[in-house]
Amino acid sequence: YSEFEKHNVSFESCSEQFDTSNAMGKATLQIIMVFAELERNMIQKRVKDNFYERAKKGLFPAGVAPFGFNKVETVIDGINTHMLEADPEKSKVVEWLYDEYLSCKSIGNLVKQLNARGLKTNRGNDFSGTSVRRILRNPVYVRADADVYRYLQSKGAIMNQPIDDYIGVYGCTVYGERKKKTISKFTSFNEEYIQLNLHEGLIDARAWLAVQYELDKNKPISNSGKGTHTWLTGLTKCGYCGLGISVVNGQRNGKRYVNCGGRKNKFCYERTAPITFDDVESAVEEDLLLHLKNYEYTKVRRSEESERKHNEIIIRLAKIDDEIQSLVQRIPQANEAVMKYINQSVEQLEQQRRELEVSAAEASLSEFEDISPDMIRQALDGWSDFSFEQKKVMAQAFIDKIEIWNDRIDIQYKIHDN
Which of 78, 232, 342, 401 is the least buried, fewest Cβ under 10 Å from its Cβ? Predict the structure, then answer.
């Protein structure tokens, strides 16, 4: 209609009683256009709501299935729908992609190999860097556990289910509107929803996370807080109060300062010297490399039972963090009696945290399948070339505890059988 007006052309309908050459006809057309726009928006909303509702039920929402899966018909609550099922051949390609990427660290190399083998995407196209990166980033492939939950949450995702449901079996569906379309899909999950799907994942959680950290270029994740600021995560303790050490970013200089649970809860002030994690990591690195020279072979075996125990510890630690945070938020409105209750509760929770961290440290050797003589030699020959995750693996495997004092750092190592 706007094009008609631009060229002074009037419109007369044969089926409706209006003529745009007069005022009444123009008014009638405007009313019809308003209702047509309203109906279009309502249809869009119904389609979007249906899409979201399917995703919330753990079904594959719509479109072409991700590479490695097929859409299969199923009936849920009396409704005919679809869910994902692993493709026998393509799922092996996905597993190979994750293993090969951790080996070669090159998406371009993977693209060449896939296309050389004549493989196609589920849309029938040749593979590109974008399509391979999306396979490596997509949580639809991971057997999601508590660590995956915390990683996705750190990326800004809105988790539909509690962390308890992440038992290392099912893959995830991502849905919602990306706020910044310039960011590659699955690189940021900011304000997108994560739903555990009904299909079993293809990739072990540790392998999937290792790929994510490598793709993240081993940089700390914004808004992460737990496990990504330092490769000494979970090992550092305050030498005075014994509580865990966390990272506090300097507002002016951007340095990562140490802060203990006791100081945060306003009862530990013995540590007065400002200490940065750069200083701690540097000192630990030097001592750890000397320690590694005493070992020629250490093999660490991981079992399903230890994997389950690790996941339970991570879930419980996350819940303790939430409980402590909830109590701290009540402090401004608390009277003397309530403050006493809060202090006692926080102390009890911190005690539980310490016990869980000890359990986590004891089980840490079982988190990684193999620390071979080659890996120890690589650490000794090229520690600076090690990734964040590789450094973390070595620290967790060999260090029991690091106590930080004003004038020294005490490192306690685990006892290994040579």
Answer: 78
